UniProtKB/TrEMBL annotation:
GO cellular component: Golgi apparatus; membrane
Protein family according to the UniProt entry: Belongs to the glycosyltransferase 15 family.
A molecular-function term among this protein's GO annotations: alpha-1,2-mannosyltransferase activity
Pfam families to which the protein is assigned, alphabetical: Glyco_transf_15
Protein name: Glycosyltransferase family 15 protein
Domain of life: Eukaryota
SUPFAM superfamilies, per database record: Nucleotide-diphospho-sugar transferases
BP GO annotations: cell wall mannoprotein biosynthetic process; protein N-linked glycosylation
Amino acid sequence: MMTPMRYVVLVLGIIISLHYILSFSHEAYGRATSISNIKEHIVGSGSGVPPYKVPIPEEYYTAKEVASPQGRKANAVIVMLARNGDLNGVISSMKQMEDRFNKKFQYPYVFLNDDDFNEQFKKRITELTDAKVEFGRIPADEWHQPSWINETLAKENREKMMQNNVIYGGSVPYRNMCRFNSGFFYRHELLKPYKYYWRVEPDVKFFCDLDYDPFLIMQDQKKVYGFTISLYEYEATIPTLWKTVKDFLKENPGLVEPDNAMAFLSDDGGESYNRCHFWSNFEIADLDLWRGEAYSKFFDYLDEKGGFYYERWGDAPVHSIGAALFAKKEQIHFFEDIGYRHEPFQHCPQGASHKKGKCWCDETQNFDYEWYSCLNRYDKMF
């Protein structure tokens, strides 16, 4: 009998495959453009063991029955983008975060909104934690569609996406969010003091106790990007994204990290994009990756092309491409022991990790190696 998870994946896969077939002609653009001048910067598959298969050293774990926060901490923050109407979903996510991790470590929270948070939101949130909590408003020019976007063209393209039943195809607010998460959240005044962040969204689930500090793993092992779920992007939302990426790399070949993760993104050395990306609703990452010269130029280039609005470029593929090209592949980490669900997919730790984390998810309901997952491509890089 087909499990519910496999049924959801099958149905979603059929829908996405239909979008892929309908938009197949867009792929021709990638094969017509040479990238010979950047191939020397692209590293393919290597050999060895993926970093996540090396156990976390025991000294990182908290002692049993610890009643106070641990002493050594990274310069890190938990970030949530939410609106006042998301309160119940925010509380659900935050309560799980506190119970499974943050009551032991007490990292601060930053909440961001395109409007002012109301007093009820602030009161309910601050009652959930002893950690520092700050509430910030997003500058209007970082959230709304820029004036230089041709709205006539953008509207025509949105209508086409709606006709083709592309998810969020007609939504301008969704595009605003994707653009903000791609290029602005890390510039916010409230995040400037921090080096690392953990992105959390409303209505997600954390299945396991986390008795070590993942921020210290990032810091001590010089990781810059951490994920739990990876999958393929909808082709219909990014028809010209990879051509734009290649154009950028032609103009800026020196920005590519020599020991990069291009093999995760492409099966032919960068000629075409296989659509793999890290699902960015969960991220534990180094803010300096986005603040650096390479990604800053990369985002500005994408933004000028207008694909966030003329198409529906998501922050997940944009972040993933940025991390894969501008960081070493060893600096991208799969947090195998963090049980996580964002509808409709979940990562449920397996074996010893499931037991150690006292996870409450069903091990058989795990997306890692379903046919629409990209984790196998990540594994093959090492």
